[in-house]
Design a protein that fits this description.
By secondary structure, this protein is of the alpha/beta class. The chain has helices spanning 43-50, 63-66, 82-89, 109-114, 133-145, 163-168, 188-193, 234-239, 257-267; strands at 6-7, 38-41, 56-61, 77-79, 97-101, 122-128, 150-153, 178-180, 197-201, 208-209, 220-226, 242-245. It folds into two domains: 6-101, 2-Layer Sandwich (60s Ribosomal Protein L30, Chain: A), CATH 3.30.1330.30; 109-267, SPOUT methyltransferase, trefoil knot domain (Alpha/beta knot, 3-Layer(aba) Sandwich), CATH 3.40.1280.10. A seven-stranded parallel beta sheet has the order 8-7-6-11-9-12-10. It has a five-stranded mixed beta sheet with strand order 1-4-3-5-2. Residues 12-30 have a biased composition (Basic and acidic residues).
């Protein structure tokens, strides 16, 4: 039986240091980007955290929201009224509960490419310079929903475990393995060697219709997506095996990257 939560009345209480001044980022002051604890907001996302491989450090929330969680024994739980909670985190939290967790290292690239069954079909999303945390979170949520097995990130991508990424993904990013592809775009050859068809999304008129890429003929497919606005660089498009576009009505030149990702994931299932 878990211990009842401890009441916090002092916003400077060191026991809730993981959650302090979150508007400044996803890490306590003085720590480097991508090195602080993972911060998860809202009951559904915290519930997903509790079933994920990430070790939970602490949970903080208003009493009603904490009661909705089935916290395992040994997880420190703290409750505070909404005013103290707001002072701790630096803004008004409508979701009412947060959790912190230890980071896990990125997946081994070769293991991610192969998967647990080397003969099974695989789908990956490969992101170039996608530095908007909310777009990354939305892509991660669609990836989990639509059968994508992992993310590959070039060196300029945002941190997929940044607080806003986790929030927009509704915690689903915690179930999605990711790895870095530091040699970009030359590292795409590692995907080709592993049997992947790399498909670069672009609105260019000379690209093939995405519907022409038959997922049954290519059981291993990796979809390349670029940042909102500039899209994929010419170098990345040249390195991919196929350049594909999503057909759209006249007068609309492109979709937002998160919407385009969802369409591509569904088309290539």
């Amino acid at each position: 039986m878990p211990e009842p939560p401890t009441t916090i009345t002092d916003p400077d209480d060191p026991r809730v240091a993981d959650f302090r001044d979150l508007k400044a980022g996803d890490r306590p002051p003085g720590t480097e980007r991508g090195t602080g604890p993972v911060i998860v907001e809202g009951v559904p996302a915290v519930e997903r955290l509790l079933t994920s491989p990430y070790r939970v450090r602490a949970v903080l929330g208003v009493p009603g929201r904490l009661a909705a969680l089935d916290l395992p024994e040994g997880v420190p739980a703290y409750e505070a009224d909404k005013w103290v909670l707001s002072e701790v985190i630096g803004f008004r939290l409508t979701r009412g509960v947060l959790a912190s967790a230890d980071r896990r290292p990125p997946a081994d690239l070769d293991a991610l490419l192969t998967g647990p069954d080397p003969a099974a079909p695989r789908r990956l999303a490969v992101l170039e310079a996608l530095n908007d945390a909310e777009n990354l979170g939305s892509i991660a949520r669609s990836a989990v929903a639509l059968g994508v097995d992992g993310l590959l990130l070039d060196p300029r991508c945002a941190d997929p475990l940044y607080r806003r990424s986790v929030r927009v993904s509704m915690g689903h990013v915690l179930a999605l393995p990711f790895a870095a592809l530091p040699d970009w775009p030359g590292g795409l050859d590692r995907l080709h060697d592993a049997g992947y068809l790399t498909v670069a999304l672009t609105p260019a008129e000379d690209a093939v219709d995405l519907a022409e890429v038959d997922p049954r003929a290519h059981p291993r497919t990796a979809v390349l997506l670029g940042a909102e606005g500039p899209g994929l660089t010419p170098q990345a498009q040249r390195a991919a095996r196929v350049r594909a576009r999503i057909p759209m009505r006249t007068g609309v030149d492109s979709l937002g990257v998160a919407a385009a990702a969802a369409v591509a994931f569904a088309t290539l299932r």
